[in-house]
Write a structure and sequence with these properties.
The chain is α+β, with helices and mostly antiparallel strands. The chain has six helices and seven strands. The chain has a domain of about 120 residues: Aminopeptidase, CATH 3.40.630.30. The protein is globular. This is GNAT family protein. InterPro entries: Acyl_CoA_acyltransferase (IPR016181), GNAT_dom (IPR000182).
């Protein structure tokens, strides 16, 4: 049985009831930089997305899960993207929505659960993530979970009138 349950949080599939939560995240301009978004999304488009969110990861190459507390509060989302079966790799992205819920271990627990799932159930060999050089909390999170810095992409993103560098992190599953 696949378990995506941790001590303080669990990961679950998106549900139609998550419309407002996803809508608020996708339309929060303060975090657009994280997803390279520059336009808002309508509730109609997000509703359509939620209706198709249950599609198989092998078909759509993505898995988006809600990070939920045991009192069913939506804390954030964690994604597997660019799922590549041939090369056995995928990207990971994570977001804890509200500042009040950050730095409490939720991201660490969610990342550990998803990393274990990717290696044990999806049979991936490696995971990677891209993090802006000024996102110190995310850099610390991924480094503490065993990811290694493998590169720096200079002037990679342009936000608020300035270019920012972006680090590339990678975690290789050495258990065969």
């Amino acid at each position: 049985m696949v378990t995506l349950k941790g001590e303080h949080i669990y990961l679950r599939a998106l549900e139609p009831e998550d419309l407002e939560f996803v809508y608020n995240i996708e339309n929060d301009e303060s975090i657009w930089e994280l997803s390279s978004t520059i336009t808002p999304y309508s509730k109609y488009l997000i509703k359509q997305y939620l209706e198709n969110a249950q599609a198989d990861i092998y078909e759509i190459k993505q898995l988006r899960l809600v990070i939920s507390s045991y009192n069913n509060e939506c804390l954030g989302m964690i994604d597997v993207f660019d799922f590549d079966v041939t090369n056995k790799r995928a990207g990971i992205g994570i977001l804890i929505k509200d500042g009040k819920d950050r730095n409490k271990g939720h991201g660490r627990e969610a990342l550990k659960l998803l990393t274990n799932y990717c290696f044990s159930h999806l049979n991936l060999h490696q995971l990677y993530c891209n993090i802006s050089e000024d996102n110190e909390n995310s850099i610390k999170l991924f480094l503490n979970q065993g990811f290694q810095t493998i590169g720096l992409k200079k002037d990679w993103s342009f936000n608020n009138g300035e270019y920012k560098n972006e680090y590339l992190f990678q975690l290789i599953n050495n258990v065969h």
